[in-house]
Amino acid sequence: MTTKKMRRFEGKVALVTGGATGVGYATASRLASEGAQVVITGRRADVGEQAARELCGQGLAVEFIAGDVADEQSVRSAVEHIDRTYGRLDILVNNAASFQSMRFLGANRAEWRKVFDIIVDGTYYCTQAAAQLMVSKGIRGHIINVSSINGQRALEESSHYNTAKGAMDQLTRSTALELMDEGIRVNGVSLGFIETAMSVVDGVVEHETDWFKSIYVGRGKIAQRRQGQPEEAAGVIAFLASEDASYICGAIIPVDGGLSITF
């Protein structure tokens, strides 16, 4: 017996920031496979255009727009393009992020600000611009912020990223409270170790290291004893973007294989 493929997002338009790689790419693919017209954004035009070609080659409706979420005007230009082209925006996934290992005592302001500009300011700019368009069109939209377990736990050499993700989590709760009256639901996902390009830190693949194999797998620090895949995160994001999650508001759902429940 063949199960009919879900089409929960038929007629919907979605914007996925940082959508050319990793979790963003998997999310764009998942939303488009369920019927959405998806727009992905990113700073690298070559990578973004290639991602869009790949997804379109699979019969999916995906467009790439070059842009920088840390630049408010760039964000507004992208949202204006979506309005002109598609006349609506139903789903926003704030996925763009930046990370590099950084010791706190040796950090400088530029390195600190770069992470905040993308993760915190970028989420603010995108959420505000998208919500304003949704409200103007009378759309009961969905906004999903892609956060990290780092927003709730501290990891060394990551003070900038830990703090920015913590701020993103609070922005999720705060905007959920304000935008619910406008019919817009805001939620988030808190990711653990997901196998993406960001898993490579200073040239080292995290889940291939001895400490990961020993602590997270061998000792069961991750209850499922493995890293996650981008598609597993995308499935939860798609759920939050759908009416299946109609009574979820301001939640930040762990997608971490049980990492957050161990000690």
From TrEMBL:
Enzyme category, top tier: oxidoreductase
SMART domains, per database record: PKS_KR
PROSITE patterns, sorted: ADH_SHORT (PS00061)
Stored Gene3D superfamilies: NAD(P)-binding Rossmann-like Domain (3.40.50.720)
Keywords: NAD, Oxidoreductase
Residues of the Ketoreductase domain: 12-192
Keyword Transport: no
Key word Magnesium present: no
Secretion signal span: none
EC number: 1.1.1.-
GO terms, molecular function: oxidoreductase activity
Pfam families recorded: adh_short_C2
Family: Belongs to the short-chain dehydrogenases/reductases (SDR) family.
Designated name of the protein: SDR family NAD(P)-dependent oxidoreductase
Originating species: Paenibacillus mendelii
